[in-house]
Write a structure and sequence with these properties.
The chain is α+β, with helices and mostly antiparallel strands. The protein has five helices and five strands.
């Protein structure tokens, strides 16, 4: 088996293995570039009295985990405290995420479920950061994306090797490389 054949097979099978992930990121990039003006609808799951003492400087992640658990949910979540009187917990789910708001001064917990929206389904997958979230599947997602990043580099490198080892394609290859690099440089410098 020749070196070129090994490179071609590597390029071919990496391309086939990466196909669903590359399609996902290609499709999910469109909504980022063309945002919709419509806001998704949120349905109240519950709005009930709730008390949780939060000490100044308390671990916000632990607070979010407690609120999520008390809301009857588990899994990955994001938490933030936009002001001293409110804690927001977003339970991540590509299809129907839940946002939970703890109004500290009102001693009230509000949970709302988002309707399914294709645009936000796609952008949620694109921007999902599994390394920051709890749960095995979130860690698997993060690992797959890390492998995808490395595989894309190998895929590009194998494409360059094939291009270089096939002399008949060098002229158009140089045109493609120069055009791509020039476009990239122009946009980076001018943006």
């Amino acid at each position: 088996m020749t070196f070129l054949l090994v490179v071609r097979r590597l390029h071919l099978y990496l391309g086939l293995a990466l196909l669903p992930w590359v399609v996902l990121f290609g499709l999910s990039s469109y909504p980022f570039n063309h945002p919709a003006q419509l806001q998704p609808k949120w349905t109240v799951r519950f709005d009930r009295p709730y008390t949780l003492e939060i000490a100044p400087g308390a671990d916000l992640h632990a607070t979010g985990a407690r609120i999520l658990s008390d809301a009857g949910l588990s899994g990955g979540f994001y938490v933030n405290q936009p002001n001293p009187q409110r804690v927001n917990v977003t339970h991540t789910n590509f299809m129907h995420p839940t946002r939970i708001t703890y109004f500290i001064d009102q001693k009230r917990l509000l949970a709302e479920d988002r309707e399914f929206v294709w645009r936000q389904f796609l952008t949620s997958m694109h921007a999902h950061n599994g390394n920051e979230l709890d749960g095995t599947l979130n860690k698997v997602w993060a690992l797959v994306i890390d492998v995808l990043c490395l595989a894309l580099i190998v895929w590009m490198a194998s494409g360059y090797v094939m291009w270089w080892l096939l002399p008949g394609s060098r002229s158009w290859g140089w045109v493609a490389i120069v055009a791509g690099a020039a476009t990239f440089a122009y946009v980076i410098v001018r943006l």
